[in-house]
Amino acid sequence: MKRIITVLCLTLLTAAVRAEFRTWTRKDGKTAELELLSVSGRDGAKSGEFKMRSGAKVTLRSADLSGEDAKIVEEWAPEEVAVPGGESVFDDVLDGNLVRLKGRSLKRCKDATKPEKYYVFYYTASWCGPCQKFTPELVKFYNEHKNGKFEVVLITSDSDEDAMEGYAVNKQMPWPLLKLRKAKDFKKTFDHGVTGIPSVIVCELDGKVLGNYRNLAQLEKLVN
91-223 — its CATH code? Predict the structure, then answer.
């Protein structure tokens, strides 16, 4: 059962601040770094579900928040971004759950474009030696060949958000990444036959898997 926060800790983690997290303030002046995930309830009695930096989820009533923060919860609605491209079987999982590298941190992806033909799902992780060698090649490929036909989305095998973010920063990844907390659900929903990483799984919009295109010369022929 989710609990109502009665005391918010002032101690901040030393990890880099990610875009989804911000400082929330109670009426009593106590603060905490939280990410707002969703809002439930009716006008005047809304509660927000938040994620703490530890990964734990908590619920906080708008009535317990300071005026500006209470207003955010009261007026919150899931972000809907109109993007070009075709509908796909992946929309329900990807929409609103993508992040992209901005500067030195991962921020909510507001400019994702839905591809006309193919999703290229890059299964990878920061701890994977072969991935560390392959990723710069894929970055170069993406920067040189990106067009409306395809979009790369990273599906992480990291278990830590800081590791995922550091990996993206270190390799200057230009593509969207599925949020870490959604990666496990994605893998359960879509069985792409991945037995090792790195894997570059190309899918049509109806979910049909065309193959593992680690050979980027073959991928170039497909998407150009």
Answer: 3.40.30.10
H/E stretch holding 223: helix 216-223
> Residues spanned by CATH 2.30.30.700 within the chain?
21-75
Alpha-carbon torsion (124, 87, 213, 192), positive or negative: positive
Extract the residue ranges of the chain whose pLDDT is less than 50: 1-19, 80-83
| DSSP state string for 51-110 | EETTS-EEEEEGGGB-HHHHHHHHH---------S---TTHHHHTT-EEEEETTEEEE-S
Residues 120, 219 contacting (CB under 8 angstroms): yes
Tokens of 177: 């990444």
Amino acid 44: pLDDT? 60
Residue 157 near residue 125, CB atoms below 8 Å:
yes
The answer for residues whose C-beta is within 8 angstroms of residue 182's C-beta and 6 or more apart is: 93, 97
φ and ψ at residue 199, rounded to 5 degrees = -130, 140
pTM above 0.90, yes or no: no
Angle at 75 between CA 61 and CA 32, to 5 degrees: 45
- The domain 21-75 having CATH identifier 2.40.30.10: the answer here is no
DSSP β-ladder status, 199-204 and 118-124: antiparallel
